[in-house]
Specification:
The chain is mainly alpha-helical. The protein has helices at about 25-40, 45-55, 65-85, 90-110, 110-115, 125-140, 145-170, 175-185, 195-210, 215-235. Mean pLDDT is about 90; it is low at about 1-5.
Length: about 240
């Protein structure tokens, strides 16, 4: 794609494409997301998208300057899908846990797109909403601004890191996933105590635990540390917050 782009008000295509649909930014992003899950990063090409939409590839320039612009829109749409399903309760710890788990689940639903987009900063509407919302949860809970930003940063980076890690695993070919899963039982569970006493002692737990995501446990550890920090702040200020 090139650097030219049409202003938002002039973008809508008046005539349907060959497949009878009217182009929009939302339709292009949804189609790109679907193609990425089917074909990976190579799906983000003007030619492939145009073919899937039944449209002249050049018409996509009305909406996106280049493929990276489209990638950022896809990343922002993943954030938007998560935010649209999340409802705060007023309990900051429960709300952040729920949001983190939804971010993770949303990534696993679109693993190839998540792997490519988890490290991007979109600066778009859904990301801005998410930043504002999470900071609001933390500040309303009583975290001073420096702490709110630090915890926000750790929360988001942890969520996105696990999203990328676990999505990369899910996106592996089935045979590779099954081979990785088998290693814990076929190799680690058979190591003798004489040479590997700690692995042998915990082998049953390793087999049970290592083939599932550790994100929920890591998230709980982060939120426990944040709650301890908030209690410390409350004691220092006499607020007694929790």
């Amino acid at each position: 794609m090139s650097e030219r782009v049409v202003p938002p008000g002039a973008r809508r295509r008046r005539r349907p494409t060959k497949q009878g649909v009217v182009l929009s930014e939302e339709l292009i992003v949804a189609t790109a997301l679907r193609l990425m899950e089917e074909h990976g990063a190579e799906a983000l090409s003007v030619r492939r998208l145009g073919r899937a939409l039944g449209a002249d590839p050049s018409s996509l320039y009305r909406y996106f300057r280049h493929t990276d612009d489209l990638m950022l829109a896809v990343a922002d749409e993943l954030i938007g899908r998560t935010m649209r399903t999340w409802r705060p309760t007023g309990d900051w710890r429960a709300d952040l846990r729920d949001l983190g788990l939804r971010v993770h689940a949303g990534a696993l639903a679109h693993p190839r797109a998540a792997v490519l987009s988890s490290y991007r900063v979109t600066g778009r509407v859904h990301e801005i909403q998410a930043v504002e919302t999470i900071l609001g949860v933390l500040r309303d809970a009583g975290f001073p601004d420096p702490d709110a930003v630090r915890i926000y940063h750790a929360f988001v980076d942890q969520s996105l890191a696990f999203a990328a890690l676990d999505s990369a695993s899910v996106a592996l070919p089935k045979a590779a996933r099954e081979a990785d899963t088998a290693v814990w039982r076929a190799t680690y569970a058979r190591l003798p105590a004489e040479t590997h006493p700690h692995i042998a002692a915990t082998a049953g737990h390793l087999v049970a635990d290592m083939n599932r995501s550790s994100y929920p446990a890591a998230l709980d550890l982060l939120l426990t540390a944040a709650a301890a920090r908030l209690a410390e702040i409350g004691e220092r200020t006499g607020g007694g917050q929790s």
